[in-house]
Every structure is written in structure tokens, then in C-alpha cells.
Amino acid sequence: MSKSDAYVSFQGVQKSYDGETLVVKDLNLDAHRGEFLTMLGPSGSGKTTCLMMLAGFETVTHGEIILDGTSINNVPPHKRNIGMVFQNYALFPHMTVNENLAFPLQVRKMSKSDIEDRVKKALDMVQLGAFGTRRPMQLSGGQQQRVAVARALVFEPKLVLMDEPLGALDKQLREQMQYEIKHIHENLEVTVVYVTHDQSEALTMSNRIAVFDDGVIQQLAAPDQLYEKPENAFVAQFIGENNTLNGKVLGLDGDICTVEVEGGEKLKALAVNIQGVGFDTMISLRPERVMVNPESGQCSSTVTGKVEELIYLGDHIRSRMNVCGHDDFIVKIPNSADHAQLQPGDTVQVGWKAEDARALDVLVS
Amino acid sequence: MNTVKVNSVLLTADGTPLKISLARAQRRSKIIAFLMVTPLLVFITIAFLVPITDMLLLSGNNEIVQRILPKTVETLQNWDETSGKLPDEIVFAAMVEEIKKAKIAKKHTRVGQRLNYESSGFSSLFRKAGRKVQKIKNPPYKEALIKSDKRWGKVETWQVIKQFSGKFTDGYYLAALDLTRDSKTGNIESLPSKDSIYLKLFLRTMLLSSLITFLTFIIGFPISYLLATIPTRISNTLIIFVLLPFWTSLLVRTTSWIALLQQEGVINDFLILVGLIGEDGRLAMIHNATGTVVAMTHILLPFMILPMFSVMKTIPPSFMRAAISLGAHPWRAFWKIYFPNTVAGIGAGSILVFIIAIGYYITPALVGGSSGTFISNRIAYHISQSLNWGLGAALGVILLGIVLAFFVLYDRIVGIDNMKLG
Ligand SMILES: Nc1ncnc2c1ncn2[C@@H]1O[C@H](COP(=O)(O)OP(=O)(O)OP(=O)(O)O)[C@@H](O)[C@H]1O
Ligand SMILES: [Mg+2]
Fold first, then answer.
1. Quick check: helix, strand or coil at residue A317?
2. Which of B98, B102, B166, B282 has its CA 20 to 30 A from that of B133?
3. How far is it, in rounded angstroms, from Cα B39 to Cα B41?
4. Which of A49, A197, A218, when mutated, tests ligand 1's pocket best, judged by the most ligand atoms within 8 Å of its CB?
């Protein structure tokens, strides 16, 4: 996409709190108008810091943040017109829900009747029309969460930031809220920058996901791309479940390389991120792409595996196998009518297509 | 456990109602809990409830007249004090006999002292009577007693004795409120303003206490805010400085204020050095109200800071951020969002400082001079010097009443359960 398309743009942004270490190292990131962009990463990777710089609560040590074509480095936070949802909701306990929602509108000196209309509309949007006169303390966690979302949207900002807004909710409520926030986003066409360290949340909600680690974006892509085509070992490990086989590149033929793994087996894999022939590599393979007892010709690599453990999970059966010397090799067997009947201790053939095995860089740990 | 439902009363497996077996199961822990608070309960009863009750009783107690002059009091009941005539011989006879008895027990001056609070002169009247009654051997006692001192022949004297002969009296309270009961008409009147002391003193105590409370708030609020918003590591160190006054002797702190504020003190010397005042214009900052206010503001500051700090500590920084992100200028965010959430702490700190200040004794006594003393100094005077315990007790009860009134007021406005002390 072209640069002019970017609504929010981090340009070479660096951040240091103590003048000794960089918490954010050279961040370049664009969010498009109306996009739902998620920053995903482990704890301490600098997600909140980025969001706070965008909101104006932390200064940018170096670089520039552009909002709608103009640099906002020197715009104070209360003039940025950015909605924000905090992890603890930050609802004002001494005000009713209505007053909480009216606050940003009063600040903008709107007329009383306008305020009433907007507050009512916003509350209806989050299905809390009847709760306007309650105090935040009299609401459940999920309801508080909705009020926080409504308050961040009631003054119709073009950009809304959310820092782990669902972190305090239980799993079921969290999933429900994920859909609700997603629908609100689709209906209002606001740009959302969302922070989470829950990958399924990121995959469910986002248009694109920026995977953070150690102050650097590891990969920026749509959810399906991120899951199916991780570009480096960190992303492959971080998103979803992943089997890894370490080895050495023996040869390269177009996209496909041959890798000799630790057990001596030679496997074919898609060369995604390798340094070249002779270097170490890590093959990443999703458990659901492994086939058990494949028909001949179906797979480009086949090895023997020994079933160590079986866990029945309803829709699929999870099998831990010993493959090429790794005894943590996971295979997901769909619970179809004719799926392979395995017993612990069985020896089976497992195989996969070369494109599903991605040869990536080696994580230094 | 198996529960059986019979006639909507829940029963346990062995058939006893569930409520009873629950109470039985909890009895033991209740007894243990009670035993654990017993020492405190005993202590509070002995050291707090008993003295306060005693003070309450003392402030209305007037037994002494009846105890030492029982017959006189009894016979006086038949005398009409509004008639303008002296009581009958029988009253005088009783009086003479009882003063004789009291003289032997050395108690006659006590009655005189008690009645002297109500009308001056009684002390000397009874002391003199103690000496003279020995010579009165035969009736008519009336003439003899009047001969010993003319005052016995005045109707007013007997009016006062009758008026204050009851077992209980409101006389101390009236005196404590600068009121007096006209001995002829029995109407309650206020003293002329030149004679009134206590109302002025109560008023001054409350005004200066309010001023001190206000000053501790003004000084304490920014400090509490700073302590609550800086990193914990630094604030823990700074809290020590707030607590430092607690660890130095009250006397040392008060006297160091004297060293600072007195006419020959550091501040005056400095002002002269700078040339702001002349040698003859040295400011009087101690032994007056200024001294009391300055020293007490200093002493009570921690009581304001700590509750405010502990409340501010619980206000998440995201409140301010949220308000600012919603478009409020930081000042407005502070005033509309942060400040209202500190009210519980301000209330707790204010009521604490005010209540401590209103009953403060040592500092006003040391640095208050005559214009900066509090009601408690007056109470102390009556307890330990004038020995008018009844009046001291009445003043104390009124002070207690004022404190309780403020407490109730606070409860109405802020709510006691909102009070956070730490
Ligand atoms: N105010 C601060 N002062 C100093 N260091 C800070 C400050 N805030 C964050 N850091 C440091 O910056 C790094 C990134 O923190 P940040 O809060 O951005 O992480 P995060 O990705 O949001 O993590 P989490 O998922 O746990 O919220 C961390 O190492 C943290 O210790
Ligand atoms: Mg964070």
C-alpha cells in the first residue's frame, strides 16, 4: 500500500526510559484508515509503550509519529482526539455511567440535548441502555468493559486505542466481547490499534497483526498469513502450535531445500528464511498439516514416528509422537469417520508436503 | 452432609435443625474471638469508659450540699424563697448544728467552696461560720448566726443555698456556657460579655482548629499527591520524612518553635538582617495565636498527609490519563476526576486533625500565651489548679459533644465507612 494510505504511521520511532536500553527499537508501522491493527507480543515487548507514545502519554525518544498526515510529536494528549480503552477500564467511580459518557462531550462544550442524544446512542450501541444511572461499581466486569468502550467512542474519534481491554474478563465473556468490539469496529469504520498478548484474540479480531518482540516488529501480516506463512522462528513459535525440527541445509533447489535433521533423515522444506547451504535451520510444521500413514505420492517427506501419548479432544485426537529423535512432535488427527486408529507404542508413517514445512532461522536461546 | 427437608426447616443427618447445629459449630470460634478481644475490652473499660462516665457524672454532681447539710436542705424545702422573708428558726438551727458537725470533720469549707462557684463570698462565709458556731450554744440560733455574720441575714444567701441544694445541678454547664441563673427569678441569662470567657474560648478553639485543619490540608495535599504519584521506592523514603515528627518528642518540637519564632529568635533576627523590619519592630510570633497555629500545623501535618496519601495511592494513574485522552485539559482532569476521588482521604484527614486539634493541650499551653490557649488549657486549669472539677468536667463534656457533633456531621456528608485512615 502507498504511504498516503497510512492513517497512523510510526516512522523510525525509538523509545528509551532510562537512557541506557531501547524499549522500542526503530519502529516503522502504518495503520490504514478504518483498519483493525493489533500489536501482539510477549510481556515486556514494548506494546503498551508504543500505544502510550501514540496517545501522547510517553514522549518519543527519536523518530516521528504521524496521524492523518501531520506529525503529532508535539501535540499534547488532550488535543489528539484519540479514544482510549484501558485495561482496568478507568471508569470514573464518582460518576454514573451517563456522566462518564457525557464527560468527553462536556469537555467539548456540546449542548445538553446533544450530549443526551449521543450518550443514549452510545449506550444502546453496547446494549446498556438501561444502566445509565448506575455507578461503575454496580456493574459487572463485562458491563464495565462495554461502558469503557462506549466512552472511548462517544466523542466519535477517528482512532481508538485499546490496551488489553479484555484482559480482566473470563474466557467466555472475552470471546463474546471480541465479537462485539469487532462488530462495533465494522459498523463505525474507526481505526483501531489494539494491544494484546492473547494470540487467539488477535487472530479473531484483526485485519493485520504486528508481532512484537524485544522492541522490534517480527512480522506484520493478516492473521491467516501470520499463521500459515510465519517468516521467522519467533513468529512460528509464538503464533499457534508448532513442531520444530532442527537441522542443516544440504542443498537448495529453487524454493525447496533439503535439510538433514538431527536423526540423520533428509527432509524437503520450503526455504523461507535460511542463510544458505551449510547453515543451520529450523523446520516449522503445523500439527494439523502432518498426515498419518499417507498414501504414496501424497507427501514429499515421510518419516517413521512412534506414538507416545494420545489425548481425545472430541473434534480431534492429539497425538504426541517421537519423530526424528524429538518426542514432543504433535500430530492432530481429525476425528473423521475413517481416521487412523492408533495405540500408544504403535509405529506409524507420518508425512507432509514440502510447502507446509518451512525452513526458518534458528532461534538463539 | 445429608440434609433432610422437613416442614421447610433444614435438618442435618441426625435430625437437629441446620441452624442450631450451625450455631453450635460456630460457638467455639465465637468464644475464642471474644477471649481475644477481652484484654482490649477490659482496658478500654478501665482506661476510657469509666473515666468518661465519671466525668459525665461529675459535671452534674451536686451531692456535697445535701451530704453535709442534709437537715438544712430538708427544712429549706418548706421555705418560699420568693416571699422575700428569711427562713424560719428551724432552718437556722439545722444549719448551726450541721456546721458544727462539719467543722469537726473539716468538711465545712467544701460546701463553702462549692457554693462559692455560684456566688462569690460563700467560701469566706462558711470558713468564718466554722470558727463562730462553736460559741453558739443556745437558741435562738437565727439571731446568733446573723450576729456572727450579717450575710446570714440576707435572703439571697439562703436563695443560693436552696437553689444549689439538689442532688444534681446544671450550674456547671451554665457556667461553662457563660450563663447564669438569676437567684430570684430562676431565669437563665447570659453573662455580660466582659465576664464571658468560655464561649469565647470555645469559639477560638474551633476557629483556630479549623484554621490549622485548613493549613495542614493546603500544605499536605501537594505532598500527598507527590508521594502517591512518584515511584514507590522514592516515596517510601520520603514517607520517613513525613513520619519523622512522630519520632521526635513533642516538647522538643514545640520548644524549637519557640527558638525560631521568639522575639530574639532566628526568624526575627533574619528579618532584621535582611532589613525587612527594624530592631524595634520585632514581630511577636510566639506566645500568641500565631504561635499556636504554626506549631500545631507542623505537629498535626502527618495526620493529614497519611490518610490523603493512602487514598491517593489507590487512585490508578489511568484515571487521569483516561480523562486527558477524553479531551480534558490536565487541570480539568485533575479537578473533575482526580480530586473528587480524594475526598474520602481529605475528609478522614480533616476530621482527624480537627478532632485532635480541638482537644490539644500541651502546645497551646507552651506557645499559646494568652491569646492562643485552647479550651483544654482551661479544663486543665480547673482540674489541677482551681480544683473546680465540676466545671472542668462540664467543659470536657461540652467538648466531647462538639467532637461527636462533628463526627455525625462528617458521617452525614462523607460517610464514616468512606473514611480511609491508612
Ligand atoms: N515507566 C517506565 N519506566 C521505565 N521502564 C518502563 C516503563 N514502562 C515500561 N517500561 C519497560 O519497558 C519495557 C516495555 O514495557 P511495556 O509496558 O511497553 O511492555 P508490554 O509489551 O506492554 O508488556 P505487557 O504485555 O506485560 O503489558 C519493559 O521492559 C518495561 O520494564
Ligand atoms: Mg502492556
1. strand
2. B166
3. 5
4. A49
User: Which residue in the block uniquely carries the three cell numbers 466531647?
Assistant: B400
* H-run or E-run covering B117: helix B108-118
Angle between helix axes B389-413 and B198-229 (nearest 10 degrees) is 40
Q: Which three cell numbers stand for residue A191?
A: 481505526
Contacts of B229 in chain A (CB under 8 A): none
- CB–CB contacts below 8 A, A to B: 60
For domain A3-233, the question of CATH label 3.40.50.300 is answered with: yes
Nearest to A94 among B318, B325, B340 (CB): B340
Task: Write the ipTM.
Answer: 0.84
**At the fourth CATH level, which superfamily is domain B198-418?**
MetI-like (1.10.3720.10)
Q: Which of B325, B335, B417 has the most A C-beta neighbours within 10 Å, making it the best mutation to test the interface with A?
A: B325
Residue A159's pLDDT band (boundaries 50, 70, 90)?
very high
Where do the structural domains in chain A lie, given as residue ranges? 3-233, 241-360
pLDDT value, residue A314 = 87
Q: How many helices (H) and strands (E) does chain B have?
A: 21, 4
The residue extents of the domains of chain B are 3-57, 63-195, 198-418
Mean pLDDT of A229-245: 90
Confidence band for B1, pLDDT divided at 50, 70 and 90: very low
Query: What pLDDT, in 10s, does the model give residues B120-163?
Result: 888 898 888 888 888 888 878 888 888 888 888 888 888 888 88
Q: How far is the CA of A193 from the centre of ligand 1 (A)?
A: 17
- Contact residues on chain B for A87, CB-CB shorter than 8 A: 318
Contact A86 B336 (CB under 8 A): no
- The predicted model gives B99-108 an average pLDDT of 87
Output the pTM of the full model.
0.79
Task: Classify B302 as helix, strand or coil.
Answer: helix
pLDDT in tens, A5-46: 789 999 999 999 998 999 999 899 999 999 999 999 999 899
Residue range A296-324: average pLDDT?
A: 87
Residues with CB under 6 A from ligand 1: A 17, 23, 41, 43-49, 197
Query: Was domain A241-360 assigned CATH 2.60.40.10?
Result: no
Residue A165 CA to ligand 1 centre (angstroms): 17
Burial class (CB in 10 A: 0-12, 13-18, 19+), B157: buried
Chain-chain contact of B318 with A90 (C-beta, under 8 angstroms): yes
For residue B282, what pLDDT is reported? 87
Residue A13 CA to residue B28 CA, distance in Å, equals 66
Residue A183, pLDDT above cutoff 80: yes
**Which residue has the CA at smallest separation from atom 28 of ligand 1?**
A44
The answer to whether residue B401 neighbours chain A at the CB level (below 8 Å) is no
